[in-house]
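This is your field. Pick holes in the following sequence-structure pair:
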Amino acid sequence: MNTFFRAILVACGTLFVALGFIGIFVPGLPTTPFLLLAAWCYARSSERFHRWLLSNRWFGEYIKNYQEGRGMRLRDKTLALLLMWTTMGWTILYIVPVWWGKLLLLAVALGVTIHLLRIRTLRPLTQDRDVAGGRFSKALDFDRE
């Protein structure tokens, strides 16, 4: 791949990371699709940026689990739905003045809710005490809820 195309992909990946970050705080702007697009761009252009994204303490595990089809932790699903419905509800009730805008936001919220509920739930099954190390080891189960 030529240098120019790599630079374009790195720039797009960086833009998608920024949009994904902004999407955490702005209702109606998605986070996950932008981060997945950033991972795709970085995987094809820069091993360093791709490794950074997948090892990021906020996004890394989330993106890896989603890409590998392992699912989302129940805590992450619950938090995402709680934050989304809080911000969407507030926006529908107090910000958007027209009825068709309110219906559109409600439809988006319902669509995202259905999507999140259909994603496999990743949860710890057992926590066995490791006597020697004093740590917990977790076995993971991948179930749908």
In short: The two ends are 42 Å apart (CA to CA).
